[in-house]
Amino acid sequence: MDDNASDSRLLRDALSGLTYVTFEHAFTFEGAVKVLRSQNSDRRINLIILDWYLHPIDGIEMLSVLKSDEALRPIPVIVLAGSANPSIVRVAYDAHASCVLIKPLDSEGVLSLAAEIDRFWLWIVQLPFSPGSAHLNPE
Fold this sequence. Notes:
By secondary structure, the chain is mainly α.
């Protein structure tokens, strides 16, 4: 979830070049809730990448919605923050973010971050709705 189309596109393109991933993007709170509520047994969301600075709400409000919903609570949430402000980091973890990453300022940084997200979250971690293996299998 990111209200900045170019940031979102850059991250999506970087990740899609690394692994088998299907993206659902939302620019707004309402759009995000609609996408998340449209899940079914054939189409499950395994990981949420959340921009801390959404409009008109912020990341803490979105995390509150996600973690108060029993169906959405298990989905890991990566929070992207614009800075390493300790108060934002603390609030995000208090709201049950899975991790907080600093949003890179350039495309090279985004590519590097995407590679790390891919390696850790899509190959090493066992996600809540992935069937039987730690990685997303395109077969």
